[in-house]
Amino acid sequence: MTRKLTKKATPQALPSTAANEHPQRKWFVAAGLALLLAIAGGLFLGSSSRAPAPSSPASLSPVSAADAALPANATYVGAQSCQTCHEPQFKAWSGSHHQLAMQEAKASTVLGDFANVKFRNNGVESTFFRRGDQFMVRTDGPDGKLADYEIRYTFGLYPLQQYLIPFPGGRYQTLPIAWDTRPKGEGGQRWFHLYPDQKIDHQDPLHWTGLYQNWALQCAECHSTNLRKGYDAASNTYRTTFSEINVACESCHGPASAHVDWARHAKPPYSAADDKGLPSLNSRWKEAWQFPSEGARFAARDHLADPAAMNSCAACHSRRSTLREGGKAGAPLEDTHRLAMLTAPNYHADGQQREEVYVWGSFLQSRMYQRGVTCMDCHDPHSQKLRAEGNALCTRCHNATEFDSPKHHQHSAGGKGAQCVTCHMPTQNYMVIHARQDHSMRVPRPDLSISLGSPNACTQCHSDRKPQWAASAMDKWYGKAWRERPQYGTTLHAGQTQGAAALPGLLDLAASPAAPAIIRATAATLAQAHVHPGALPAARALLHDADPSVRVAALGMIAPIDPLNRVLSASPLLSDPVLGVRIEAARVLADVPDAQIPEGRRAAREAALQEYVASLQQEADWPSGNVNLGNLRLRQGRMDEAAAAFERAIALDPGFAGAYVNLADAWRQQGHEAEAEKVLRRGLAVMPRDAHLHHALGLALTRQGKKAAALKEFVEAARLAPDNARYAYVQAIALHSAGKRDEALALLRRANQRHANDLDILAALFSMSREAGDRPAALIYAKQLAGIMPDNADLKRLVTELEGH
């Protein structure tokens, strides 16, 4: 699987203490400077940029089986050890995309044209040529000057092949110019740039010599077997190792030494109960599915497959960050990684793929997954080929008479519109030419395109038509019942656009047993920004969910509440069987003193905290990993360590705005306002147009009593980020503090139109309107607040008082 390296696939960066640990909201907004000072805390908002030049020679080292010990003393033995007993599987794997995922660059593996071919992009002329047996490219280096670089490894196979170039410090950088391996008649057999519409020079964070195009950082984990990143933070270097250069048998099955030992001594007949030294990854794809009766519309599985098989696929076919290396084969994804939820910009409002999300998050939404379909039911795991071609694959489980006919698809038989995947798995190109199908396998919903702006397969194919046309056509074909099919897009979209008013719907969806787990986890994640004490029972219920991603999201929901309730809710999950849940519980409880943790839970808290720190150290080459470590140390009051972690993030990426913001917050918490200001101005010297830094500087100046200078920074932050409701709100408070109430009210009214149901904006409008003597306006805003929070007794009393005058 070839990946485009972008700064968007970073490990999740969590909010700083100041942003995430706020007291319960007060719904009476104090006017003026006092309020502005109350909100003048730090805020993490991620960004990314470039890394310093490496300094030592590069090397990649395959490791021996003895060096590759894993839990239970299992070791890696290599694919050749599997061939003797598993010849058909080995043969199918040979020549597959997995077997050729990464290779040494030589005449038999390099597919690109290196016959002194020149390629121009945005003013840079690169030349691909041979120097003896070496494959070379002359292109712009880290200083912007042309230089010769040796291609050491190939990366990927079809529809494109990328190339890795060694750099000092154990780094391998991915060239942004790739070879199109498709046939010439399909537009292939050419060099092309992965960022064709962007001007990327040596100062750009996505330049191929920079941090975010580093093989070990971004993509090595999924292209080799038993990959150990081997990053040393002190020297900022890598000693990356692997058992096999490609995706071999043990990438999915785990280290096989115990299995080989069993095979040496076992004699047929073999018992199904035998511990053969490897987890079973058999999906029983062929015999498990049967039509329950003649004429039945759908086949059914006789019993659910062991989830271990698909779990082995998930880690590399998903948008996620890494928690640890060397997890047990077949373990849940959340035991080794943290899955990205179905939120923007990665997904459209209804969960369809948008950015490159690598299938798993899409598949988890599907009805196929809910009915027990596994990856192996459709794909041979060894050859990666489909089990059948065209509609024959789908009609293994969908009655062909019912579904593979014009009465169902309403298109000419044999044409593109008659193919199941055209309507149910539309493609989107990533890496310019790689068309990937959306594995959520949904019924087209042009009606949602109208209301949510999400795409639909009909108008993706009929690009000259509007969603209304497609919806009308479906009404004629199928009646209007299709519009009533369950869908989650409306609720998730509200969660991202309707502010606190969306909370009841999000909580209902998160608790719905009919919704897929990833939908429920996404709903709980979106609810985190709007949680209040009244939502605590719903969050607590989700902490007991069977799915670990839901438990993780529920822990995020209780993060802002008081320590006592956090301890009562989260401490049992410190011993959760899934790593991702344990470390999230540890993060949520990191700032609670030992005396407030039940004595029987303290050891579990300490163990989970150590696991959390280890997961952050695993990502120490990511700026966001260092920011998360700094955030943890801030929560624990370990200010020197926090500052050091933020400084490491800045050293890795001087353009990572969140590191400056949180470093300034660390100084603020120690009472060193002048130092906080210096840090933020240092960041602005690198990123003068960064809204987050301007906003944070405004807060720092406010704390120093420099109101006029602060207001200028708030104005600039709001100008640079007009869609950020918080910045508009703070600018309005600063205006009010400067005695410009009318301007503040006008700004808040405009912001209220853009950001419906934002509690801060509504509360400020209420307070300032009442202060101005505009009782009717104050009543309107009080009612809006009460409608969003119907259980808030203070708001009810306010409305009653205002109505009584």
UniProtKB/TrEMBL annotation:
Sequence ranges assigned to domain Doubled CXXCH motif in this UniProt record: 374-401
SUPFAM superfamilies with a match to the protein in the record: Multiheme cytochromes, TPR-like
Region (Disordered): 1-20
Listed GO MF terms: oxidoreductase activity
Pfam families attached to this UniProt entry: Cytochrome_C554, Paired_CXXCH_1, TPR_19
Sorted UniProt keywords: Signal, TPR repeat
Positions of TPR repeats: 623-656, 657-690, 691-724
Domain Cytochrome c-552/4: from-to ranges: 82-107, 216-254
PANTHER family membership: C-TYPE POLYHEME CYTOCHROME OMCC, DISSIMILATORY SULFITE REDUCTASE SIRA
Name of this chain's protein: Tetratricopeptide TPR_2 repeat protein
Organism expressing this protein natively: Candidatus Accumulibacter aalborgensis
